Amino acid sequence: MEQELKTIYEVQVLESNIINNEKKKLIGPKKIEEMDKELEELKKKAEKEKTVIDELDKERRKKEKELDVEKDRIKKIEAKLYEVKTNKEYQALLKEIEMAKEEMDKTEEDIIILMDRIEDLKKDYKSVLEHLKKRENEIKEEKGRLLNELSNIDKTLEELKQQRNQLLKSVNEDLRNIYLNLIQRREGLAVVNVKNGVCLGCYMNIPPQLFIEVTKNNRLITCPSCNRIFYFVEDI
Q1: Domain ends where: 115, 148, 170?
Q2: In the chain, which end has fewer C-beta atoms inside a 10 angstrom radius, N or C?
Q3: Residue 126 in domain
């Protein structure tokens, strides 16, 4: 019985590997899709920030042109000062110059605000690009690993199932049927270890005397709580 218990435990190890690989086969493509989506979102974020920077820069250039127009206008008004003949006309031109300079000051202030905003956004944009580049490299490496894993997973599953089925043939029919029944009922976990008197399948305590018997691995013992087969392995 000891050898058969060891064999059924080895079958369980293979079974767990099969389940893990089947999960990878399902989850792998989803992970790749999620990574592609993440990259797409990061690229959109970078494009959006670049668009905002370009629009603000366009507005800055527009303001600078307006400033040049206002400066030329002031020069033309100042030139007229030498042509006026009355004090009233002179005062009117001075008032016009004053208003034009106020408008120019406001435009200059707008340009400074825009430049500060653009500078801050460029720093953010640079950080976004650096993060994007980093994630691109990380995702490229992770996708390569996953794709390689997925390309070999069917072969791996076939080999594992062959090994499992071969081992199962060497187990007596009663034990095999118990195992197969538990696999169906207990989500692929039929054989478990016991540590410090605790079933590692359902994590319930078992009686001390039963634990001692389990450690001998010389007869079929199942958990009183979950009915899983016990096989004791040290240091797990």
Answers
A1: 170
A2: C
A3: yes
pLDDT tens per residue, range 166-214: 999 999 999 999 999 999 999 999 999 999 999 999 999 999 999 999 9
In a shared domain, residues 118 and 29: yes
**Phi/psi at 160 (5° precision):** -65, -40
Q: Are 107 and 63 contacting, i.e. CB atoms less than 8 angstroms apart?
A: yes
CA of 202: how far to CAs of 119, 189, 194, in Å?
A: 59, 10, 10
Same structural domain, 85 and 165? yes
pTM of the model: 0.63
In a domain, 11, yes or no: no
192's enclosing H/E stretch is strand 191-192
Task: Spell 24-45 as b/e; 16+ CB within 10 A means b.
Answer: beeebeeebeebeeebeebeee
